[in-house]
Amino acid sequence: MSGTEGAMPDIMTKEERSERMSRVKGKDSKPEKRVRSFLHRLGFRFRLHVAGLPGKPDIVLPRHRKIILVHGCYWHRHGVCRRLSIPENKPDFWRKKFAGNVERDRRNILELKNLGWDVLVIWECQTKDEETLKAIVTRFLGVVDR
Ligand SMILES: [Zn+2]
After folding, report:
1. Residue 23 · residue 75 · CB < 8 Å
2. What pLDDT does 57 receive?
3. CA 40 – ligand 1 centroid, Å
4. What is the pLDDT of the chain when averaged over all its residues?
5. Who surrounds ion ligand 1 at CB < 5 A?
6. What is the pTM of this model?
């Protein structure tokens, strides 16, 4: 996390602000917690924020050689999501900042794949509905629905 992320833009929606706050407080953002508790229930073992891998990936399942990244729609700029305003204060700065986030994500995912990891990005908006989350995770991990 770079230093500039600590600066709070003046204009944000309530959702943006709450996501921002959850990022500031720590790495355990709510969407990530939802995914983790779901994996637990499925009986998967995983490691968190593994420092030795590109981008310190959120959830690493070493035995399966799989990685799950849980991306906040706002900071990682989820293309199909509508909550993608740009702060009115210093919009150019934020545009550049967001573009940097997207580029960094792209690079990290590419590097992880080159290292032989299977990578899944779960977007914040996909964690809100249990059935959606279940479908995405079970498909990625090859779980047979019981
Ligand atoms: Zn989204």
Report:
1. yes
2. 97
3. 23
4. 85
5. 73, 78, 81, 123, 125
6. 0.78
